[in-house]
């Protein structure tokens, strides 16, 4: 479900306030496009499929030679590693960039994040 223009502006204001308040945390949770947790890439999916093929192939060939069980174990590890890599955001092309700093404004109050949000809310409806 798409956000309305007003909701997008409010979200942008929250994001800017977060980046101003705690830049390190803001960069760690910032995302660009559809990046973030669960960013499934073609490379990650290919690694998981290769691991699955190794796992199934090793189990099927284990009847003829017991050494193919090792292939199944390696296949499982490859599959697991690919899934963890995708969930951690590996292989994605999107990188989180710090937003440009806004103009320096004199601080009206030193209340923190909540007071800044309240000031933004009041300023939005005063215009």
TrEMBL record:
<feature type="transmembrane region" description="Helical">
    <location>
        <begin position="66"/>
        <end position="87"/>
    </location>
</feature>
<dbReference type="InterPro" id="IPR021401">
    <property type="entry name" value="DUF3040"/>
</dbReference>
<protein>
    <recommendedName>
        <fullName>DUF3040 domain-containing protein</fullName>
    </recommendedName>
</protein>
<feature type="region of interest" description="Disordered">
    <location>
        <begin position="91"/>
        <end position="127"/>
    </location>
</feature>
<dbReference type="Pfam" id="PF11239">
    <property type="entry name" value="DUF3040"/>
</dbReference>
<feature type="compositionally biased region" description="Basic and acidic residues">
    <location>
        <begin position="116"/>
        <end position="127"/>
    </location>
</feature>
<keyword id="KW-1133">Transmembrane helix</keyword>
<keyword id="KW-0472">Membrane</keyword>
<feature type="transmembrane region" description="Helical">
    <location>
        <begin position="40"/>
        <end position="60"/>
    </location>
</feature>
<keyword id="KW-0812">Transmembrane</keyword>
């Amino acid at each position: 479900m798409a956000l309305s223009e007003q909701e997008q502006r409010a979200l942008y204001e929250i994001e800017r306030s977060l980046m101003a308040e705690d830049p390190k945390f803001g960069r760690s949770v910032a995302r660009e496009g559809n990046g973030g947790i669960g960013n499934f890439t073609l490379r990650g999916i290919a690694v998981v499929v290769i691991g699955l093929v190794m796992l199934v192939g090793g189990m099927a060939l284990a009847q003829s030679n017991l050494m193919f069980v090792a292939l199944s174990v390696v296949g499982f590890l490859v599959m697991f590693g690919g899934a963890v890599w995708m969930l951690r955001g590996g292989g994605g092309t999107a990188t989180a960039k710090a937003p440009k700093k806004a103009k320096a404004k004199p601080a009206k109050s030193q209340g923190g994040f909540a007071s800044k949000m309240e000031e933004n809310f009041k300023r939005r409806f005063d215009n």
